[in-house]
Amino acid sequence: MVHNQQNIVTAQEDNPPDEDRIAEYLQQHPDFFIRHSQLLTDLVIPHGRDSVVSLVERQISLLREKNTILEKQQGKLREIALLNGRVQERMHRIALQTLAATDINQGIKELIASLIREFDLAYVRLRLFDDAAQPLDKIKPAFRITSQSAHTAINELTPTSKPVCGQLSTSQQKLIFGKRGASIGSSVIIPLRKDMLQGIIALGTADKNRFTRSMDTLYLQRLGEVVAASFVRLIT
């Protein structure tokens, strides 16, 4: 009998329980340590090189680490929320000003000045397409694009109503920003499309990393829609 028990013990030592099966069992029975609470004070986990901690201490340590990570994530979310709030306020002010405009040329000047002021931009351009089919006689030449090739090139750059962000090619910089194009590190091109009106608002900065292709453009797209709707009213 004793010999058989020794054989059983030896067999267990040679074939220890499968760790995966133990882990699976504990996951399926989360109350295991509640029913066997005495194990919590007996189990120890290596901690560093020369010390050990109990399972409870290790769990508390992990929870603290998780709380620290969550607090940092919440802090970042609060910062994003505050930033979005400021952007919304700026967009709201610009939209109200644009909707209140009674003269197209004055409205364009005020819009450009607002964008420079509100977003601390060095370069802002607004250009509307003027051709035989859609003459814009009310608008000053400085705000019009009459070249069909330029019209085509810009339409290729902005094939949809979604703003385009990032770095422009040298030819695109010159086309949109003129002589100052060489100083543009990154930019946003906001399409303006409403009925007979077509054009763009171009925002430029010397900072290559300020406007990137991955940035969210929802607010900018909404701004373009408001501006286009307002300007259509002023030219018809």
Describe this protein's structure:
There is one protein chain. The chain is of the alpha+beta class and 236 residues long. The protein folds into 2 domains: 19-100; 102-235, 2-Layer Sandwich (Beta-Lactamase), CATH 3.30.450.40. 55% of the residues lie in helices and 16% in strands. It contains 9 helices and 7 strands, in the order H-H-H-H-E-E-H-H-E-E-H-E-H-E-E-H. The protein has helices at 2-14, 19-28, 32-35, 38-42, 55-100, 104-119, 148-157, 170-177, 218-235, and strands spanning 44-47, 51-54, 123-129, 144-145, 164-166, 186-194, 197-205. The strands form 2 sheets. Strands 4-3-7-6-5 form a 5-stranded mixed beta sheet. Strands 1-2 form a two-stranded antiparallel ribbon. Strand 1 and strand 2 (51-54) form a beta hairpin. Helix 5 (55-100) runs antiparallel to helix 6 and helix 5 (55-100) packs parallel to helix 9 (218-235).
Task: Describe this protein with a few key phrases.
236 residues; 9 helices; Beta-Lactamase; two-stranded antiparallel sheet; five-stranded mixed beta sheet; 2 domains; elongated; 55% helix; alpha+beta
Number of continuous helical runs:
9
Total DSSP E strands = 7
- Share of helix, binned: 55-70%
Task: Count up the domains.
Answer: 2
Query: Looking at the structure, what is the overall shape?
Result: elongated
Order of helices and strands: HHHHEEHHEEHEHEEH
- Based on CA atoms alone, the radius of gyration comes out at 33 Å
In short, what is this structure?
The chain is 55% helix and 16% strand. With 236 residues, the protein is an alpha+beta fold.
